[in-house]
Inverse folding.
C-alpha cells in the first residue's frame, strides 16, 4: 500500500498547478493581445497602401520654391530654410513642428495616463491642449508674429450648432477645426511628417498598445538626440551631383522642401542609373521591373 502525499506536498502541488494555469492564461491573453494589435496594424497598412487622398489641395510647385502659404487672412505659413533649422537648432524646430503635425496616436501614452482615451478625442482637441504651450518666439520661423500662447477655448454657435474654437481677441485670431486641419496638412506636407492613426476597440487591446508604448518609452527615454539632417547634409555634400556647398546651405535660401527633394532625387538618380547599367550589362532581369524605375525624372512623391 503506497502512502498518499502529506498535506504539505499536496498544498505545494496545488499551488504549483495554480501558478502554471495562471501563467498559461497570461500567455494566452498576451497572444490574443498581440494578435489583435497585429490585425489592427495590418488593416492600417492596407489603408495606407491605398494612398489617402489629400484633404486639402495646394500648389506643390509653390511649396517647392518656398512661397509662403496663406491659410486665411490672419495665418500665413513661412517655409524655413536649411540655415534656419541649423541656426535655431534642429531639435527645437522639430519639437515645435511636432505640435502641428502630431495626432492623438502620437500622444496616446500621455493621454492615457491623464485618463483620456486617445480613440475618443479628435486631433483638434489635442491641438487645443498643446498649442497654448508654445511661446511666440518659438513659432516665429513658421508663423511670424502670431502668438499661439494667447489662444483660449471659446464656444461658438453657428446655425444653432455649437463648437469649440481657439480664439484670441487681442490678435482677433480664430482657429476652428477646419482651419486647424488645413494648417496641419500643409505643415505635414512641408516636413513630410504624416503620423499613422492607430485606434483600437476594447480596453484589453488598448491596454496592450499602451503597455507596448510604455516599454518603448522606458527603453528610449535616456537616448541622446540624433540629428536627422546631419547624415543627409553630409551625404549630399559628399555627392558629386549635389549642387550646393556648405556655405551656400548656411547662408542661402534653400528651403527645407527643396533640400529634402534633392535628397530623394539623388537617391532616385543613383538607383535608376544602377538599373540602367545592370540592364545594359545583362546582369539584371528587367522584365519584372517597372519601367518608371528607370526614369530619374519621375515624380518624387510617388517614389
Amino acid at each position: 500500500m503506497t502512502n498518499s502525499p502529506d498535506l504539505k506536498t499536496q498544498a505545494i502541488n496545488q499551488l504549483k498547478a495554480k501558478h502554471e494555469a495562471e501563467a498559461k492564461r497570461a500567455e494566452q491573453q498576451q497572444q490574443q493581445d498581440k494578435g489583435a494589435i497585429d490585425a489592427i496594424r495590418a488593416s492600417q497598412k492596407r489603408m495606407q497602401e491605398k494612398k489617402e487622398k489629400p484633404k486639402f489641395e495646394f500648389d506643390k510647385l509653390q511649396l517647392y520654391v518656398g512661397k509662403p502659404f496663406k491659410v486665411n487672412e490672419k495665418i500665413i505659413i513661412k517655409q524655413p530654410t536649411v540655415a534656419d533649422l541649423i541656426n535655431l537648432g534642429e531639435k527645437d524646430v522639430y519639437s515645435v513642428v511636432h505640435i502641428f503635425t502630431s495626432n492623438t496616436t502620437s500622444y496616446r501614452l500621455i493621454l492615457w495616463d491623464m485618463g483620456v482615451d486617445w480613440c475618443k478625442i479628435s486631433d483638434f482637441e489635442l491641438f487645443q491642449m498643446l498649442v497654448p504651450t508654445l511661446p511666440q518666439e518659438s513659432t516665429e520661423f513658421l508663423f511670424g508674429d502670431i502668438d499661439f500662447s494667447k489662444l483660449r477655448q471659446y464656444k461658438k454657435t453657428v446655425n444653432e450648432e455649437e463648437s469649440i474654437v481657439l480664439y484670441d481677441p487681442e490678435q482677433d485670431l480664430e482657429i476652428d477645426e477646419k482651419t486647424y486641419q488645413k494648417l496641419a496638412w500643409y505643415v505635414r506636407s512641408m516636413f513630410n511628417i504624416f503620423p499613422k492613426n492607430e485606434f483600437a476597440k476594447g480596453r484589453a487591446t488598448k491596454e496592450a498598445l499602451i503597455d507596448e508604448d510604455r516599454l518603448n518609452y522606458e527603453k528610449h527615454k535616456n537616448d541622446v538626440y540624433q540629428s536627422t539632417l546631419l547624415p543627409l547634409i553630409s551625404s549630399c555634400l559628399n555627392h558629386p551631383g549635389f549642387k550646393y556647398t556648405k556655405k551656400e546651405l548656411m547662408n542661402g535660401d534653400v528651403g527645407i522642401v527643396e533640400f529634402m527633394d534633392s535628397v530623394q532625387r539623388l537617391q532616385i538618380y543613383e538607383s535608376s542609373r544602377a538599373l540602367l547599367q545592370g540592364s545594359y550589362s545583362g546582369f539584371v532581369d528587367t522584365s519584372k521591373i517597372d519601367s518608371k524605375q528607370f526614369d530619374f525624372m519621375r515624380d518624387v512623391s510617388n517614389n
Remarks:
- The chain has a mean pLDDT of 86.
- Residues 45 and 196 are 9 Å apart (CA to CA).
